[in-house]
Design goal:
Length: 297
């Protein structure tokens, strides 16, 4: 067999080395390019009180727009349910409670550092009833009328406990009877796991009245009539928020908390009827539309 001249062999070898070099450079370039343009994907799990649903959905959208690669997923439920889920190991990054009691539950379990918990908003109570007002409710005293069907959140739910507190204050007030609380509770036909369920049953006419937050009434003003509760009988709901100590996305969780506390986050919450963290809480929020009062229905 005739051997190729040395010069030919050298030319072929040089060509092969050139091809290998080019292919190696392309592969390396593609790898570097891909890694430099890839944004880490993060799913942030936020556990939040049911009454925050509408406001937090908007806050979540705004937060995602400002943080590329972050997807905010929400678990909305009664604060007591959320605290229990967190203490059972549910993968939460942020907890927003409708009262300090349930935040304390996760603090005591070690899931949240007490120093990281911040009050971010306040809320107030209101009596709601269907637009048709079948129970003919025109004043708070009417909730004690025999035969009325009332739905409340369970006492383990912040809104439920706040409602019971209101009834106790009213019973001690001279404009109500001493047995007002007992008579109202006789009319309760169901205790719900969150305020959204109370709103739903009253909106559907399954109950004559319920007690929820002013924000819930405002969000459903087209379906509900509303009766304000005076300041001396109110319980101001305090909402704390905190990142979870075991979060795998600790930095992003803190950024979300910071955004909720920021002027932008507070403005969104205020637009849904909440009282800002630094706002006055000594008044009954005149956020309810007067056209929804019993006299106008």
């Amino acid at each position: 067999m005739q051997r190729l001249p040395s010069i030919h062999r050298l030319a072929i070898l040089a060509f092969l080395l050139l091809v290998i070099s080019v292919l190696s450079a392309c592969g390396s370039s593609g790898t570097n390019s891909g890694s430099s343009n890839t944004t880490p994907k993060i799913t942030l799990n936020v556990f939040a009180a049911a009454s925050l649903t509408n406001a937090f959905n908007e806050i979540g959208q705004k937060f995602q727009q400002a943080h590329a690669g972050v997807t905010v997923t929400f678990n909305f439920a009664g604060s007591q349910q959320l605290a229990q889920q967190i203490n059972q190991g549910a993968p939460a990054d942020v907890f927003a409670s409708a009262n300090q009691t349930q935040m304390n539950v996760v603090i005591q379990s070690g899931a949240v550092d007490a120093s990281s918990s911040k009050v971010f908003v306040h809320n107030l109570l209101v009596v709601i009833f269907p637009k048709s007002n079948p129970g003919q409710i025109t004043q708070l005293q009417d909730l004690a009328k025999p035969g009325l069907k009332i739905v409340l959140a369970a006492s383990s739910v912040p809104a439920g406990q706040y409602a019971v507190d209101f009834l106790g204050k009213a019973s001690a007030d001279s404009s109500f009877s001493p047995d007002y609380k007992a008579n109202v509770l006789k009319n309760v036909v169901s205790y719900e796991t969150d305020v959204e369920s109370v709103v739903s049953k009253v909106s559907l006419g399954e109950a004559d009245a319920g007690i929820v937050y002013t924000t819930d009434a405002l969000a459903n003003a087209s379906q509900l009539g509303q009766l304000p509760i005076p300041a001396n009988l109110q319980t101001v709901a305090t909402y704390p928020i905190a990142p979870l100590k075991g979060s795998k996305n600790a930095a992003t969780a803190q950024q979300f908390v910071d955004y909720v506390l920021s002027s932008d986050g507070q403005q969104i919450l205020t637009s849904f009827g909440f009282i800002p963290a630094n706002g006055a809480t000594s008044f009954v929020a005149p956020l309810l539309i007067e056209a929804n009062s019993p006299e106008d229905d």
